[in-house]
Amino acid sequence: MTAQPHDPELERIRAALATVHDPEIPALSVVDLGIVRAITRAGDGTPVVRLTPTYTGCPVAALIEWAVRRALDAAGFAHARIETVLSPPWSTADITEEGRRRLREAGIAPPVEREDEEGFFCEDPAVPCPRCGSQDTEKVSEFGATACKALWRCRSCREPFEYFKCVPRLRLRRGAETPAG
Amino acid sequence: MDRQEVLFEYLLRLGDNALILGQRLCELVGWAPELEEEMALANIALDCIGQARLFLSYAGEVEGRGRDEDALAFRRDVLDLRNALLVEQPNGDFAHTIGRLFLISAFNEQLYAALTGSADRRLADIAQKALVETRYHVRHSGEWVIRLGDGTEESHRRMQKAIDDLWMYTGELFTTDEIDRKIAEAGIGPDPATLKPAWDRRVEAVLREATLERPQDGWMPTGGKDGRMHSEHLGHLLAEMQFLQRAYPDARW
Q1: CA distances from B161 to B11, B41, B213 (A)
Q2: Could you give the angle at the alpha carbon of B30 between the alpha carbons of B25 and B34, nearest 5°?
Q3: Contact indicator for B112, B131 with CB cutoff of 8 Å
Q4: Is some CB atom of chain A closer than 8 A to the CB atom of B47?
Q5: How much is the pLDDT for B213?
Q6: A8, A81, B146, B157 - which has most CB atoms within 10 Å?
Q7: What pLDDT, on a 0 to 100 scale, did the predictor assign at position A179?
Q8: Domains of chain A by start residue, with CATH
Q9: pLDDT category, B250, cuts 50, 70, 90?
Q10: Distance (Å, rounded) from C-alpha B253 to C-alpha B19?
Q11: Which among A36, A91, A26 has a CA at the least distance from the CA of A68?
Q12: Would the CB atoms of A87 and B128 count as touching at under 8 Å?
């Protein structure tokens, strides 16, 4: 996310957005999640907040926009504009370090970032347990309480936990989309 | 047809493919063979509906007659729909559901990749987002085609039958008509025929690993993407999908 330096108003907007939490993962603010792409000013000076969706069909995208609108209103920026941008597509690599810490605190293993894979039946990454840190963990189900998380369990401390699945950065493959079979 | 009208028609094709596939997958909520797979299919359906919203809301703006994504999704009748015949085919058994998802996703994967280089910036942005999601759809459905094809005698037989039954609907995806030509000339999208070699490689590799036979190319019906003649199945799908807005126009909640 980029915020222009030395603009106290934009800094206040940033602080206001840091209080807006993702309804599906309340541990994270929209800033932690990396969906605030820019806080800037339009040509006429109007503050503009650029948001990007996590998934095109994210069921809470509208709710998040309302929450951002309310936070802007409450901070005295009712005139600020909210714009949606799609490119570059959001990836879990956009989750901030602070966001990853908060996820672990909430008992959710943060995404293990990896390259965009082309093959089938890829192996699961080694996901450290967010409670005890053990690498001796296993996947129980591809989906958890939300579609973006999987259900895992730790074989050391025996606790179940959720894993925030990696959404890799879009990498365009050169030439044809797939290599010759 | 002027440039705007061509772009509108093209966006309807993209949007309706996503919308109808999404609706078909939504029909399985509560009926999928197991809970985890139900989550996966519902999640993929959600991606499709999300992509449809982006394409159709853009289409509505290009058309400039005040129709938004909802008006385009819920107030058009069968012959106004521009989706390919493949996506409107019924779910059938699980092999048919997965086979349809794999064949169309492998096509969308090539299409969206090409569209990321579109001269139309907004379309290129949507395509990037859709491509990330579609790669997952290809992976998920492709793994199932392999698992079922290279599975038991029963699953192999059913998966082969599904691919055989659906194969004739794949031809339409690669046909090029006047709209496709104009879109390609303007640098907005690829000529669909150019996507065929990469699609063939992708599909053949999966079928081979699944120990399935690639069907012979025979007669391939068309008429979906230009709205000339949809199969009878689309009307039934719309009857359910559009019921509420037809019965209670402009209902909001």
Answers
A1: 33, 21, 10
A2: 90
A3: yes
A4: yes
A5: 98
A6: B146
A7: 39
A8: 2-90 (3.30.300.130), 96-164 (no CATH)
A9: confident
A10: 21
A11: A36
A12: yes
Provide the β-strand partners of residue A49. A39, A82
Of residues A181, A173, A179, A140, the one with CA closest to residue A159? A140
For chain B, give every domain's residue range. 3-247
High-pLDDT (> 70) share of chain B, %: 100
- Residue carrying the six token digits 């907004």: B122
Amino acid A175: pLDDT: 53
Predicted confidence at residue A59, as pLDDT, reads: 82
Q: Are strands A160-164 and A108-109 parallel, antiparallel or unpaired?
A: parallel
pLDDT tens for B52-75 read 999 999 999 999 999 999 999 999
Is B180's pLDDT higher than 70?
yes
**Cis amide prior to A88 (ω within 30 degrees):** yes
Cross-chain Cβ contact B128/A170 below 8 Å: yes
Amino acid at A34: G
What is the Cα–Cα distance from B50 to B17, expressed in whole angstroms?
12
- Give the residue-averaged pLDDT of B7-19: 98
Mean pLDDT of successive 10-residue stretches along chain A, which has 181 residues: 73 96 92 96 96 90 94 96 95 96 96 85 92 95 87 96 94 58 32
Q: Which two tokens stand for residue A46?
A: 């109007």
Q: Structure pTM?
A: 0.93
Dihedral sign, Cα of residue B10, residue B20, residue B112, residue A163: positive
| A62 in contact with B, Cβ within 8 Å | no
Residues A31, A98: Cα–Cα separation, whole Å:
10
pLDDT at A180: 36
- Chain A residues with CB under 8 Å of B131 CB are 89, 170
B3-247 CATH fold: Ferritin (1.20.1260)
Burial of B178 (0-12, 13-18, 19+ CB in 10 A): exposed
Burial pattern A138-164, b for ≥16 Cβ within 10 A else e, equals eeeebbbebbbbbbbebeeeebebbbb
- For testing the chain A interface, which of B14, B38, B51, B132 should be mutated: the one with the most A CBs within 10 Å? B132
